Amino acid sequence: MKKDAIVVIGAGAAGLMAAITAARAAPQVRVVAVDGAPRLGAKILIAGGGRCNVTHHVVTERDFHGSTPAAIRRVLRAFDVEAARRFFEAEGVPLKRESTGKLFPVSDRAQDVLQALLGAARRAGVELLHPYKVTAIRPDDVGGFEVDGPKGREAPAAATGTVTGGPAGLGASAVILAPGGRSVPKTGSDGSGYAMVSNLGLPLTPRIFPALVPLRLPDGHLVRALSGLATDVRLIVVSSSGRHLASVTGALLCTHQGVSGPAVLDVSRHWQAAMDDDAQSGVLVNWLPDVVAEDLDRRFQNHGARPIRRALAPPLPDRLADALCALAGVDPDEPGATLTRDARKRLVAVCTAWRLPVVGTRGFEVAEVTAGGVPLSALTAGLEARNRPGLFVCGELCDVDGRIGGFNFQWAWASGTVAGRAAAARVAAGTMEPVSG
Ligand SMILES: Cc1cc2nc3c(=O)[nH]c(=O)nc-3n(C[C@H](O)[C@H](O)[C@H](O)COP(=O)(O)OP(=O)(O)OC[C@H]3O[C@@H](n4cnc5c(N)ncnc54)[C@H](O)[C@@H]3O)c2cc1C
């Protein structure tokens, strides 16, 4: 039987955008988006603290890690920030730019972003099957795919008339994989996409790990007792030989389990990657990112009769200044003038290059994104599997992870658009010949 449907697996940010794009580009082609989560769009709803940081005012390939910058750039250029802004504006959700450069809906409601996507999908004629958890995808013998759903669950009547397939499955001439990664699995992205990818013969990066994730410190550590305190720092990931591997400046938040905040989230993927290569690598904290170590030493030397904590606070909060003195083995009430050279050096080191005693990350349960996935080198410019024509990949399943600030959604919008456009062209042309690119 001839199949003329595109089945999108996963109706999150990337999947919805892919489905909308495909349905708009080829209205004659049936587009079905399926999602297994109990709640549709859960990740969009929790994003940005319920406000959804939709994108960032400037997005380039340098804001991402994973696959090569050139491959990432090509996707980003196909649907840029202005295109995202226009899309949401046209769907009744204008965006506003905040001082950080992040773009949010003017309404500050993530719910409006989700409703805009669902409304656009409905108007474009996308059929949404939900909850419908895909358990396997099998190539059929006519160049298409069989998509297996929940056992004993028939493809709903709305779809069966137009989407071919067995009683518990869907038939498709093209499949767009958008099941996300492993982060916050209770939202539906439980990592099941990786097995589908592997079964279909696509490569995955050797490492798939949580990114944008808080770091844990040992039980009872002094910094955990500072829970709630936030300050600007510079974090530097260093190898065992002291080589600087990555550096991030921004806010650090002390939590009851360790550290979080934008700078920590951004550095976490570098820490994890460094640790996987070299267990002796680590993260150094400069608690005074605007101060050079030599200047701080001079400041301590010239501090006279005043307690040494006053050389740190302000600008640091008192509690932090005392904690840093404790870490250096220095009495915060000791006058600067009586500090020994050794004590002074220890305090300078703690303030400007303190090794954060990280014992791990908080894992996929709370990570905002997953690093690793399908390398873009395995996909054409249309994000179609080079070794499996008709199979497209987009969103977080790709080996692309962005820094904090709206970049991951921009990747979802852009890659969803590219995959949707290419899948529509593939099915509308009615050919399953491999394409170059
Ligand atoms: C707490 C939090 C806050 C965030 N805030 C922001 C932010 O403000 N800005 C930003 O840019 N990024 C943010 N992110 C990251 C962003 O949400 C993700 O990068 C983005 O949602 C990825 O989109 P995706 O469509 O690829 O995957 P997902 O959004 O994870 O969607 C995948 C969908 O596929 C479905 N699925 C999975 N497996 C199957 C299966 N077998 N069968 C059927 N369906 C399946 C899932 O149910 C899910 O709905 C945040 C992430 C988290 C966790």
UniProtKB/TrEMBL annotation:
Residue stretches making up the RsdA/BaiN/AoA(So)-like Rossmann fold-like domain: 6-421
Q: Which UniProt keywords apply?
A: FAD, Flavoprotein, Signal
Domain RsdA/BaiN/AoA(So)-like insert: from-to ranges: 210-369
Keyword field contains Ion transport = no
Q: Where is the signal peptide?
A: 1-25
Q: Which Gene3D superfamilies match?
A: FAD/NAD(P)-binding domain, HI0933 insert domain-like, Translation factors
Cofactor annotation: FAD
- SUPFAM superfamilies from the UniProt entry: FAD/NAD(P)-binding domain, HI0933 insert domain-like
The keyword Ligase belongs to this UniProt entry's keyword annotation: no
Name assigned to this protein: Flavoprotein, family
Q: Which organism is it from?
A: Luteitalea pratensis
